[in-house]
């Protein structure tokens, strides 16, 4: 069986272009410019790269981008005060506090302080709850991107067996909720699952979101299955440099999977595109248009 790669980079570029068109129309017809505020505390190198990319793509889509960089020793109370100011600022429709936060801060408390209407990460319990009960919600960006790719490549997902490996609040749990909303039969597997390879082999759709390099082996994949690899793991090479690998052994999956997202270039580019989509959605809802 030939295994086809899913080109998330190209799909994300198309999505960003559609968003830019919609932003231009919002400005023209309603005088509304969607605004996204990104808050970075400290100098984690990976987070700095993400935040730079987010700011650049927000501006490219024609949105207003507000960056707030705070020193690593910022008091939690000062971060909460900034969140309160952004909640009250009518030019800001979306707020993203980059995670992880420094150890002296409680991420749960900071997320709880966000106005749920501006929570473009979809991490607030109000948004998680609304997703779970089937109400309009802001949905976490990475799982939203995964399901967009699946619907684009597979069409209707109803009745398919979906196995999500990983139960994080950021990816695993919301991915399972979204797949349930598409009428999949959903299993959430995790580190305590018995016979994980056997459970994965039942999957028509296999989503790997565990953060362990190449954990999902080729013989865990049902022939013809669609594999979505959310992992981004940096591992050392023989020459002292590093390379990126996913949570799935990509080479082993060749000839077994029907479709698979590569790392990089699969799910990764979809995350920021979906963040822009959420910011647009949040701006429209706040303005009532
Ligand atoms: N850190 C890594 N990915 C993300 C994300 O999607 N949102 C936030 N807030 N922080 C992150």
Give an overview in words.
With 289 residues, this protein is of the alpha/beta class. It folds into 2 domains: 30-117, Rossmann fold (3-Layer(aba) Sandwich), CATH 3.40.50.10860; 141-269, Rossmann fold. 42% of the residues lie in helices and 17% in strands. It is built from 10 helices and 11 strands. A 6-stranded parallel β-sheet has the order 1-11-8-7-5-6. A 3-stranded parallel β-sheet has the order 3-2-4, with helices on both faces. A two-stranded antiparallel ribbon has the order 9-10. The longest helix has 23 residues, at 8-30. The protein starts with a strand and ends with a helix. The mean pLDDT is 98. The protein binds guanine. Residues 96-99, 121, 141, 271 line the site of guanine.
Keywords:
binds guanine, 289 residues, three-stranded parallel beta sheet, six-stranded parallel beta sheet, Rossmann fold, alpha/beta
Overview in brief:
This protein has 289 residues and is of the alpha/beta class. It is built from 10 helices and 11 strands.
Number of strands: 11
Taken from the alpha-carbon principal axes, the silhouette is globular
Mean pLDDT: 98
Listing every helix as H and every strand as E from the N terminus to the C terminus, the arrangement reads EHEHEHEHHHEHEHEEEEHEH
- Ligands: guanine
Radius of gyration: 19 Å
Order of adjacent strands in the largest pleated sheet: 1-11-8-7-5-6
């Amino acid at each position: 069986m030939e295994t086809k790669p899913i080109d998330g980079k190209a799909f994300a570029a198309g999505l960003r272009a559609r968003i830019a068109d919609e932003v231009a129309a919002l400005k023209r017809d309603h005088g509304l410019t969607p605004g996204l505020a990104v808050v970075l505390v400290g100098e984690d190198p990976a987070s700095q790269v993400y935040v730079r990319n987010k700011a650049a793509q927000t501006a490219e889509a024609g949105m207003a981008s507000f960056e707030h960089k705070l020193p690593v020793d910022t008091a939690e109370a000062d971060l909460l005060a900034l969140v309160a100011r952004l909640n009250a600022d009518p030019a800001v429709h979306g707020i993203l506090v980059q995670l992880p936060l420094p150890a002296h801060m409680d991420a749960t408390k900071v997320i709880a302080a966000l106005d749920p209407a501006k929570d473009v990460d979809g991490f607030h319990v109000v948004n998680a709850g609304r997703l779970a009960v089937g109400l309009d919600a802001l949905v976490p960006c990475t799982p939203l991107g995964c399901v967009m790719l699946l619907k684009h490549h597979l069409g209707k997902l109803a009745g398919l067996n979906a196995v999500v490996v990983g139960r994080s609040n950021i990816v695993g749990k919301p991915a399972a909720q979204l797949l349930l909303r598409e009428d999949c039969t959903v299993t959430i597997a995790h580190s305590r699952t018995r016979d994980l390879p056997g459970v994965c082999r039942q999957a028509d759709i296999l989503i790997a979101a565990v953060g362990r390099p190449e954990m999902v082996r080729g013989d865990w994949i049902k022939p013809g299955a669609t594999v979505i690899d959310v992992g981004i793991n940096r591992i050392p090479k023989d020459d002292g440099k590093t390379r990126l690998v996913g949570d799935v052994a990509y080479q082993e999956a060749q000839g077994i999977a029907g479709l698979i997202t590569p790392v990089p270039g699969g799910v990764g580019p979809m995350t920021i595109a979906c963040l822009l989509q959420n910011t647009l959605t949040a701006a429209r809802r706040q303005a009532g248009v």
